[in-house]
Each structure stands twice: as C-alpha cells, then as structure tokens.
Amino acid sequence: MTDLLLLPGDGIGPEVIAEVRKVAAVLAPDLALDERPFGGKSYDLHGEPLTAETLEAAKSAKAVLMGAVGGPKWTGVARDKRPEAGLLGLRAGMNVFANLRPALCFQPLADASSLKREVVEGLDFMIVRELTGGIYFGEPRFIETLPSGGKRAVDTQVYTTAEIERVARVAFELARGRRNKVHSAEKSNVMDSGLLWREVVTDLHKREYSDVQLEHILADNAAMQIVKNPKQFDVMVTDNLFGDILSDAAAQLTGSLGMLPSAALGEPGAPGLYEPIHGSAPDIAGKGVANPMAAILSFEMALRWSLSRSDLADRLFAAVDKALASGARTPDLGGALTTAQMGDAVVTAL
Amino acid sequence: MTDLLLLPGDGIGPEVIAEVRKVAAVLAPDLALDERPFGGKSYDLHGEPLTAETLEAAKSAKAVLMGAVGGPKWTGVARDKRPEAGLLGLRAGMNVFANLRPALCFQPLADASSLKREVVEGLDFMIVRELTGGIYFGEPRFIETLPSGGKRAVDTQVYTTAEIERVARVAFELARGRRNKVHSAEKSNVMDSGLLWREVVTDLHKREYSDVQLEHILADNAAMQIVKNPKQFDVMVTDNLFGDILSDAAAQLTGSLGMLPSAALGEPGAPGLYEPIHGSAPDIAGKGVANPMAAILSFEMALRWSLSRSDLADRLFAAVDKALASGARTPDLGGALTTAQMGDAVVTAL
Ligand SMILES: CC(C)[C@H](C(=O)O)[C@@H](O)C(=O)O
Ligand SMILES: CC(C)[C@H](C(=O)O)[C@@H](O)C(=O)O
C-alpha cells in the first residue's frame, strides 16, 4: 500500500516535491512513496488533468501530496480539462471537505512581512476552509446568450446542514487542542447560505462544543481584522469561497507565501490531501529558486494528520525552524539559496 | 430641490452626520439639505427600514449621504425588514451600481496602520465595487428543509454583460484621470460569472480603453497582494461580494477605518449615494467618540461627484489633511478628541 502519493504537477511543483523526496529519504526512509503526473502534465500526456487511475491511486493511498498545478500553457484549454479542474476533481473525489490552512509566523521571519513585527510575531492561527461544496461545485452554473445579444452567467452557492456541520466539527475539535476559540465567518446579513451556516454552527456548538468559545464574524469584517489584529484568532471556520480569499490574505501576513502548507481532510481514517498554499509560479518555474518549505511543511502535516507519525512531524518542524534560524533563505525571503540548497539546509538541521 | 438628503440611520450614524451638518454650514451654506429616518430608526417608526417616501426623496435629491445602519436591537427582525435590507433596497432602488471605495493613506497617519510605514505611505488606490448585482441580489435564494430533516440553502450569483460593462467603464474612466492602470479581480478559474467578467472587461478594454493598462487578477491573489504590496494598485474593479471583502481589507491598510468614505454612482446625472465604510459601531454609539472623518469625507465625495462643487471638495479635503497634521485624533486614531471636537478641528482648518 502506498503511504504517500506524490503529485508534483506543474510549474515549480516538481522542483519543490523533489526536496520533499530528499527530506523523506532521510527522515522516513520506510515510507512507501508513489508518484503520478497531475494537472497540466497529465493533460498533456492523457488529455485529462486527473485520470481515473490517478484518482483511484489517491483514494487508496494513506496521504496525497500535491506540488502545484496550472500555468499559461493551459489557458486555452476547455475549463473542465484545465489543471485547476483536476485539482477540484481530486478534492471532490477524495471527499476532503476540511482544508486546514495555518497562518503561522516563524520566529526567524518575524520581520519578513509587510506588517509590523509586533502585529505578526508569534502569530499562529488556523483557517478551516470548507473545500468540497459552496459556489465551487453548486449547480446550476452556466453562461447563456440573451435575446439582446449580451450574455448572462450564473453560479450557485449551495450548502446543506450536513456539509456545514462536518467542517464546523473539525474546527471545534481543532480548537480544543489549541486555544479553544473558534470564529465562524459568513455573510449572514446578505446570503441565505450564510444564515444557515450561522444557525448550524450555533446549534452544533450548543449541543456538543459549548466548552469552546465561539464568535460569529461577518466575512468582510474578518478580512479587516486579519489585517488589523490577526493574533486575536485561534481557529476560523468558513466556506469554500471566503476561505479561499481569507486564507490567502492570512498567508501573506507572514510575508512568506513560500512557507505555508495546507492539509485537506475527509472522514476520519480516509486519506488526506496536502498541498503548499502557493501556486505553480510559472514566472520562476525551472529556475531552481522556488522555496520548498511550503511543500516540506505540507509533508510535515501529512506525517501528523494522515501517517500517524507526529514524532517525525515534530522533528521536521523543528528542523525547518532551525534551518531558518541559521539564516537559510531562498529569494522570496530575501536570500540567495536555491531550492535544492534550502532542502539541504533542512536535511542538515535534521 | 434637495441637494443633499441626509440619512443618519443608526448607532454612530446620527453622531457623525451631525458633524457633516456643521461642516456644510460653514463650507456650503447654500446647500439645500433634507433628512429622513432610515434603517433601524425607520423600522421602529414605520415598520420598514426604507419607506417608499424615503426612496422617492433619495431618487429626487442630487445626492444622498447615509450615516450607518443596523445594530443588535434588530437582529431578531425578519431579514427583509432588517436595517441592512433597507440599505440593499436603497442601493438597488437608486441604481447606484458603481461603488468607489478609496484606500488612501493620509500622510499624518502613515504610522497608524498595522502595516509597515514604507508599505502604506503614499498609498492611494480605488476599489470600484459592483453594487447592485451578483450574489447580493440573484434569484433563487432560499432555505429549504430536506426529507432527511436537514436543511439546504441556496444563493445565486448572476451577472450580465451589461452589468459588468457599465461598472468596468467607470473603472477605466477613473483610471484615465489617475495613474491609468486597472486591475480586474474575479475567480475565472472557478466561477462562470468570473469567466464572463473577464471576457467582458477584456472586450471593453480592447474596444474603447486600450490606452489604459489592464491586468486580470484572481480575487484570492488580489487579497494577498493588497496585504503584500498595495501600492502596486491604482484602480481595482470587482464584483459585489469580492468588493465587499477586498475593500474592507484595503480600508484597514490605512489603519483608520474611521477615515474612509465611499461613493456609489449610477448613470451620469443620477444621484449618488455616499456612505462611510464603517458600520454603526453599536459598542461606541452614544458616547460621542466616533471619528466623523469618514462621514465628512463622504460629503467631500458628494461635493465632487454629484454636486459639481469640486472646488469645495478640494478645500474640504485639504482641511481634513490639515486637521490631521495639526494632531487632531479621535480614540480610534490613538487620540482623545470627541466626535464634535474632531468636527470642530475640520471647521477650524477650513
Ligand atoms: C487553483 C484554485 C482552483 C484554488 C482554489 O480556488 O481553491 C487555489 O486558489 C487554492 O486556494 O487552492
Ligand atoms: C451592511 C452590509 C449589507 C454591507 C454589504 O455587505 O454590502 C456592508 O458590509 C458594506 O460593505 O457596505
């Protein structure tokens, strides 16, 4: 059985995943790794960004680690064959509904951000983004031509009680192991799905998690508070679209998009999907300058959440921190190390 | 004919609008002002947050200046009678489809933000938010009970070519008078309305505005770039929901939500709707400590965009800057002036 299926994907994906292989060979040589083409790479080979075989391999592995997908090469491709469609298909196919996106400020990088040091130093909060529902998957969605000659486009946001409850449960459970505080972000003042979201989270909290502190926050105010005073947050749970936007803003707080991993989890025991927050970065692909830390830390999350090896995860996390403290910096952090040298720095720190 | 209809609304709304009256009496004593209850106040008096008479008065004024609406008092009220529903009804009823939300860093406040001084000093960009379409108004929208006993909520995002084109036109025109650059933000990698948005903006640009620099940006990346390097932006045009969130993040950049105005414009010649970005702030309402600058600057935008008095607008803007430079600060800016004293400081600077 495969422990970890690697999907390097496109752009800088293969470069950063190569560093994960390097780290894994030292830290966990017993792990059974497998690898498949994915995204644009898979489209080029098979005419599909996600083949049925790859989805099967993902569902039967213990964990899946993706690099990145997409790039200008595939812009002209029909939308359901684009690399991004492969990613959405993988998330839905694996049923990984809870996306954990940490906003974490590494101590050695407390000055790397556009925010003042005191605002981000020690920052450690977690966004739990619903990942398999909402406007990303709702039907109907179409573009039609109007009698007038113009067009009309429709997208549909759909959420059920069950979808909201299961992701909120992940957030409450997480908070119990952290600082015991959950913010639930929606637009219940404008959207019916926001009203249901608030109602379901409130009910679940009352029934099973009244020991956790719960606050409801409007998504626009959440965006503002993330910029103003991010340290007020511990866990924030929100829908697919708000989570996409708020987690990108939060990621940037730490000044180091190249540092941030994510984990997408399904039902207990089912394989998780791990990916760096960053994209395929076509502008630097092939140059060997991408920061591999986000991929390495995604591997760290996989060890912790899917591979039952939190001992190794702890060691890896400490090694990343140590490498940073010793001054290891790729260009995105103002340094001059190559991707491979940054991977080496982590291996050395192990 | 009314020049400016004041809708003080709820919470701190009446307090900040009182300062606008004070400023207007000195700066433009000839303006014909009128005033009506709105939002929660109107609901309490008439059972409706926006009466037909008030909407008529708004449509026949030259400009409308709103304070703020809403508060905990009306949380239990049916959603279509809530203060926020009155605001959405006013926007739709006045057909003010282009919402201009400046992210502006006043020089004397360059240190007031959570961002580093060099990141925000001199910041001056404008978000143009579509305000009368999208998921705020699309049908169907409902919550239904499922056979299983759970519920299902649906919201619909709808955009037509005409709706996108008219707001993009406002953005291109604005850019021509500024630094000639427009970013158009959407999620065309995920949403059909995003695909149409990108197509319509691209076409309009090619047909009529090819002298303006246009860049397309995904909304999640926009959130990130707003935090990372906001000075790269001049004008950003986006839909109603993304605009709500991105403009709140942008507003916070300047560290002074209490400073930021907005203008909502319709077809040329039709009245504009002006409002501070901040809300009704129930926690400080009645205490006389709210910052009236956002309301005063909303009045400044009304003078400029609806009342054809840009000479007075220039004078007022300079007076605000001067008052700040002389050290006038309400508590949100770390000072101790009351709302009335802050208004007085502007009058003095006039
Ligand atoms: C690539 C894109 C489809 C994706 C998303 O919108 O979910 C990305 O932005 C992300 O956040 O993982
Ligand atoms: C009060 C609310 C309905 C409103 C909105 O969502 O548009 C507010 O957040 C705003 O940005 O003006």
UniProtKB/TrEMBL annotation, chains A, B:
<keyword id="KW-0460">Magnesium</keyword>
<dbReference type="GO" id="GO:0003862">
    <property type="term" value="F:3-isopropylmalate dehydrogenase activity"/>
</dbReference>
<comment type="similarity">
    <text>Belongs to the isocitrate and isopropylmalate dehydrogenases family. LeuB type 1 subfamily.</text>
</comment>
<keyword id="KW-0464">Manganese</keyword>
<keyword id="KW-0479">Metal-binding</keyword>
<keyword id="KW-0100">Branched-chain amino acid biosynthesis</keyword>
<keyword id="KW-0963">Cytoplasm</keyword>
<comment type="pathway">
    <text>Amino-acid biosynthesis; L-leucine biosynthesis; L-leucine from 3-methyl-2-oxobutanoate: step 3/4.</text>
</comment>
<keyword id="KW-0560">Oxidoreductase</keyword>
<dbReference type="InterPro" id="IPR019818">
    <property type="entry name" value="IsoCit/isopropylmalate_DH_CS"/>
</dbReference>
<keyword id="KW-0520">NAD</keyword>
<feature type="binding site">
    <location>
        <position position="101"/>
    </location>
    <ligand>
        <name>substrate</name>
    </ligand>
</feature>
<feature type="binding site">
    <location>
        <position position="220"/>
    </location>
    <ligand>
        <name>Mg(2+)</name>
    </ligand>
</feature>
<dbReference type="InterPro" id="IPR024084">
    <property type="entry name" value="IsoPropMal-DH-like_dom"/>
</dbReference>
<feature type="binding site">
    <location>
        <position position="91"/>
    </location>
    <ligand>
        <name>substrate</name>
    </ligand>
</feature>
<feature type="site" description="Important for catalysis">
    <location>
        <position position="136"/>
    </location>
</feature>
<feature type="domain" description="Isopropylmalate dehydrogenase-like">
    <location>
        <begin position="3"/>
        <end position="346"/>
    </location>
</feature>
<feature type="site" description="Important for catalysis">
    <location>
        <position position="187"/>
    </location>
</feature>
<comment type="subunit">
    <text>Homodimer.</text>
</comment>
<feature type="binding site">
    <location>
        <position position="220"/>
    </location>
    <ligand>
        <name>substrate</name>
    </ligand>
</feature>
<dbReference type="Pfam" id="PF00180">
    <property type="entry name" value="Iso_dh"/>
</dbReference>
<protein>
    <recommendedName>
        <fullName>3-isopropylmalate dehydrogenase</fullName>
        <ecNumber>1.1.1.85</ecNumber>
    </recommendedName>
</protein>
<comment type="function">
    <text>Catalyzes the oxidation of 3-carboxy-2-hydroxy-4-methylpentanoate (3-isopropylmalate) to 3-carboxy-4-methyl-2-oxopentanoate. The product decarboxylates to 4-methyl-2 oxopentanoate.</text>
</comment>
<feature type="binding site">
    <location>
        <position position="244"/>
    </location>
    <ligand>
        <name>Mg(2+)</name>
    </ligand>
</feature>
<dbReference type="GO" id="GO:0000287">
    <property type="term" value="F:magnesium ion binding"/>
</dbReference>
<dbReference type="GO" id="GO:0051287">
    <property type="term" value="F:NAD binding"/>
</dbReference>
<feature type="binding site">
    <location>
        <begin position="71"/>
        <end position="84"/>
    </location>
    <ligand>
        <name>NAD(+)</name>
    </ligand>
</feature>
<feature type="binding site">
    <location>
        <begin position="279"/>
        <end position="291"/>
    </location>
    <ligand>
        <name>NAD(+)</name>
    </ligand>
</feature>
<feature type="binding site">
    <location>
        <position position="129"/>
    </location>
    <ligand>
        <name>substrate</name>
    </ligand>
</feature>
<dbReference type="GO" id="GO:0005829">
    <property type="term" value="C:cytosol"/>
</dbReference>
<keyword id="KW-0028">Amino-acid biosynthesis</keyword>
<dbReference type="GO" id="GO:0009098">
    <property type="term" value="P:L-leucine biosynthetic process"/>
</dbReference>
<keyword id="KW-0432">Leucine biosynthesis</keyword>
<dbReference type="InterPro" id="IPR004429">
    <property type="entry name" value="Isopropylmalate_DH"/>
</dbReference>
<feature type="binding site">
    <location>
        <position position="248"/>
    </location>
    <ligand>
        <name>Mg(2+)</name>
    </ligand>
</feature>
